[in-house]
Amino acid sequence: MTKAHFGMIGLGTMGRNFLLNIAEHGISGVGYDLDAAKRQLLLDEGKGMPLDVGSDLGDFLAKLESPRNIMLLVPAGPIVDKVIADLVPHLDEDDLIIDGGNSHFTDTDRRIAELDAKGIGFMGIGVSGGEEGARHGASIMPGGKREHYDRIEATLQAVAAKVDGEPCVAYMGSGSAGHFVKMVHNGIEYAMMQLISEVYDHLRQVVEMPAGEIADVFAKWDRGELDSFLIEITATVLRKKDRGTGRHLVDEILDTAGQKGTGKWTSQAAMDLGIPVPTIDSAVSMRQISSQNKLRGQIAARFDVDLTHHHSSLDLDDIEHALTAAFVISYAQGLSLLAAASAEFDYNLDLAKIARIWRGGCIIRSKMLTDIAAAFSSNSGHETLLLDAVLARKVEHGAIGIRKMVSSAVGHGVPAMCFASVLSYFDAFRSQRLPANLIQAQRDYFGAHTYQRIDKEGTFHTDDWEA
Ligand code: 6PG
Known about the structure:
Layout: E1 6-9, H1 13-24, E2 29-32, H2 36-45, E3 51-53, H3 57-62, E4 69-72, H4 78-87, E5 96-99, H5 105-116, E6 121-128, H6 130-136, E7 139-143, H7 146-159, E8 162-163, E9 166-167, H8 177-205, H9 211-221, H10 229-239, H11 262-273, H12 278-291, H13 293-302, H14 316-345, H15 351-357, H16 368-377, H17 389-412, H18 417-429, H19 436-447
Parallel strand pairs: 1-2, 1-4, 2-3, 4-5, 5-6
Antiparallel strand pairs: 6-7, 8-9
Helix pairs in contact: 1-6, 8-11, 8-12, 8-14, 9-10, 11-12, 12-18, 14-17, 14-18, 15-16, 17-18
The protein binds 6-phosphogluconic acid.
């Protein structure tokens, strides 16, 4: 039998579907998983496709053509290192390991260096789109050596989602560029999901709309400027009825959001690079608050009095425009972070290309990414998307809506941390003068940290603040 072109270790939902997608495109694949049932499932689902499995690691490796391309879709963290350690003694020079999980970018840099010393290639690639994307077209963000990317480009192009015939995959850059871009993708995903959930909360608590009607609102918005995967699935999940109770399933779900860490990593990296991403930070904080439900119960009981003040005239058009502007600002924060990371880590990222491959297959895909890609392609040299004419107009259009939304949320006591952060981010960046002059004065007072003046050049210290 001829040897397989592409190997996959980890035949869980993502690995199995990604390999089925590859094989469906006529590219031969071989899979391996410690769990025999998962190996069998791949064979069952891949009947008639150029697919095989390895009965053990040795058999798997023997079934791969040389030099080998071996993708790992296993949980990020120590398991990736364990699989690499198991593989390495059996690999040959020029074999390539491709980590398709959500690994931390610093782990990816470490693995690249460790394996490079042994003559083995390593790439970190971001794969977005969940089960559906893995099976029928994902957005793929590969990073590592260019020659390694060239080796697997045709395979990745085959399995990527297509927008207007263009595959949603492109070489991101060297080292951990692919995993960094995927991490920021997830940070933006956190922000968009939290913004959507704040709108849902507002419509539920303030407007007192039942879930089914809220679904209709999101479905309508999905046909307009907010056309995006997350708005679309929001309408779908809000409509779903619970078989047992007959009520809307969403109303039966515990309000505690899980997280695997990619949103938090985005905030951490942004802190390290000095790039403000407050909407992503707020989304992470809200997931953390959501998970402290016992404490929330105690605090809610302690403050069980009416502390609200209702005074807003907010309509659905305001909310639609507010959400559109908030999405633009979330993308702007993430992409500013990518620009800084590109400079710091020499990734040489092409932000227009990233926006283009995010248009299909991934969780944050949306119609407005076409405008975002155009903003970067125009070479206007703007430091932020907020200065692009088209996107600035969207923000302008939604600014009053955000203000109304936040004041309504504040008045009604409905949390809107992400909307508030969007507004403060926007207001702060459009302020000619911020009150940081006072902070400088305080720092100089207690620590002689010095300050600069607006009326003359130089560095100043005042040693008699109390005089
Ligand atoms: C994607 C998703 C995917 C996954 C996240 C969820 O792009 O397909 O981002 O990677 O859904 O890991 O992350 P949390 O568990 O942290 O929400």
